[in-house]
Each structure stands twice: as C-alpha cells, then as structure tokens.
Amino acid sequence: MKPYLGIDVGGTFIKVGLVSDTGTLLHHEKVPTEAQRGGAAILDNIVEGAKRCVAHAQMDWDEIAGAGVGVPGLLDAASGIVRQAPNLPDWDNLPVRDRLTEKLGIPVQVENDANAAAFGEWWVGAGQGVDHLIGLTLGTGVGGGLILNGKIYHGAIGAAAELGHMTIDPYHPYVKEGIRGSLEALASGLAIVKFATEGLKSEDADILLQMVKENDNEITPYIVYKAAQAGDSLSAHIYHEVGTFLGIGIANLIHIFNPQMVVIAGGIAAAYDLFAPPMMKQITERTFETSRQCVQIAKAQLGEFAGLIGAAASIKFKD
Ligand code: BGC
After folding, report:
1. Worst-scoring range by mean pLDDT, 79-93, 127-141, 163-177, 292-306?
2. 295 phi and psi angles, rounded to 5 deg
C-alpha cells in the first residue's frame, strides 16, 4: 500500500512526514513556517518540506497516495478552505486544499490540526480501540478534537471542537480572540509566557530570571517548566494554574460527551507531571463518579508527531 504525506502546520514550524498505510512514521522533515512572510510563503514552505520528504525516500510522486494537512484554524473540510486561523495571520479564506493539490499534484485533504492530533492518537496512539475520544492540544494555542463513534466530529460548518475558546473564567483579566478567560487565554503556550512575563516584573522568581537570562532573555513555556522543576515558585504556580484551568475544562467536557478517553497532546504536554495533579483534582471534584470511572486521562503517545500522523489519517480515512 502506498504511503501518505502527513503535514502539520504550526505557528513556528511545519512538520512533514511520510506515513505508512499502517501509521508508521517513515521519515520526517521540519521547515520554518515563516508566517510573517504571508500566506503564499507558508504554502511554498509546505511544498519544500514535502519535496524533501519524497526526495529522501527516493520515491516518485505517483508512489504517494495523497497528503493530509493539519491547519491551526477553522476550516471547511469539504471544500478545503481555511476560514479563520487565529495564530496564523493571512490564511483566512485561503483555499488551501486546491492550492496544494495544484502544487503537489496528488490528492490533498485539509483538517484542523487538533482534530488531526486526536485522530492520530485514536489511530495508532493512546486511543487505539476507543470509540469516544477527546483530544486537547496544548501549544501556541489550545486546540480540540472530538472523535465520536470513531469519526472526527466536524459540526455544522466544520468549526466544531474549538475547545480552546471555551470560557473557563469569565472574570479573568486575560482575553484571547476577544474571549475573556478562555482555555486558550489561560492554558496555552502564549498564556504561560504572558503569566511569566508579568510575574517576573513583580514577584520573586530568581531561578526563572536566571534561566531566562541564560536563554538570550527569551521566555518559553519550556524554560518556565525547567524553572518550576528547579524549585522556582512563580513557575510552579503558573503550571499549577494551567492544570487547574485545564481540569475545569475537561470536567465540563466529561459532562457533555461522556468520553472514554481524554488525550493531552502538544508541546506543553511535556510538562504533564507538573500540571496533571491540579488537573486531576479539578476533574475529581467536578464530575460524577459514574462518568469519571469510565474515562481515562492520558498523555499523547505520539508526542510531537500526533498531528502529522493524524493528518495522514485524515486522508486515508476520508469518507
Ligand atoms: C484555533 C484552533 C487550533 C488551535 C491549535 C486555536 O487558536 O482556533 O483551530 O486547533 O489554536 O492550533
């Protein structure tokens, strides 16, 4: 069986991989997104990554079954038009599927990046054999994916599962995409950096300050994680809050969907050991035992490749 290209378009990097028909990642390439250069440049970078992958595998394009592309935004999966991409300027209303079909010359399927990550975990990751799975992808933004009865749930216009934009705390000072106290405003990579930047101005956080200095003064969620591990109290507090907000969100989702599994993916999932205890506390306090007993909360097994492998799955299992 021919392999697929799986493409995961992130705010900073685009990951392109060759994925076998059974979900094995055969090879991958990482190219910069260069979002600041505009929508056309992002498409060119995708094509560059895809070409490198195919060349590395010494394959011809007609040996590739198709490409699945995970995009960080709201899109119409049927037409392949990206409607709104909050963290990717200049991709609103772009016919990504048609543009890439033209450039690559193979069938292309476009899917939301977090739907793709959830689907990847369902296919060959933590959620194998599970019928009802919710995926949360914690990265620059917070994405969501609903796999219901073994299928991605798209909703009326393809904008379902925008779980990062659900309100967690309507009184919180942080606002993202015009939504006060949304999960993305409170538990995303951007939020962690914002909490840390503000905290450093007023609080005693010597360990974090030192680590940031050693990192060319750049604050990243990973630096905040390392500082928390080294005993920095501001950083530990930030991840405690992230866990609390996530737990509240997940508890709401458990009430609505009665899932068998909730999978946490994305770069921030690397800090699972720090945020999981407060997250689990909220889930325990805010859900009914009956639904809690049948749900497993898990860290993604496919790590940073969940989105890429799931994007390949989105074209393989296309209706
Ligand atoms: C977007 C989602 C996306 C998520 C993760 C959010 O801001 O609205 O569509 O899945 O970021 O990239």
Report:
1. 79-93
2. -110, 135
The model carries a pTM of: 0.95
CA of 311 to the centre of ligand 1 (A): 15
Q: Which residue has a Cα nearest atom 2 of ligand 1? A: 73
Is the per-residue pLDDT at 204 higher than 90?
A: no
Q: Contact, 75 vs 110, CB < 8 A? A: yes
Separation of CA 73 and ligand 1 centre (Å):
5
Q: Indicate the SS3 state at residue 298.
A: strand
Alpha carbon 243 to chain centroid distance? 17
Render the burial of 21-60: b for 16+ CB within 10 Å, e for the rest: eebebeebbebebebeeebeebbebbbebbebbbeeeeee
Any ligand 1 atom below 6 A from CB of 267: no
Alpha-carbon Rg for the chain in angstroms = 19
Ligand 1 lined by 121 (C-beta under 6 Å): no
Protein residue closest via CA to atom 8 of ligand 1: 73
Per-residue pLDDT reduced to its tens digit, 265-287: 999 999 999 999 999 999 999 99
Closest residue to atom 9 of ligand 1, CA basis: 73
C-beta of 86 in contact with ligand 1 (< 6 A): yes
Secondary structure class of 17 (helix, strand, coil) = strand
Structural tokens at position 292 = 């809690």
Nearest to 249 by CA among 302, 196, 188, 198: 188
Ligand 1 in contact with 188 (CB < 6 A)?
no
Domains of the chain as residue ranges with CATH: 4-121+305-316 (3.30.420.40), 129-300 (3.30.420.40)
Cross-strand bridge partners of residue 108: 67
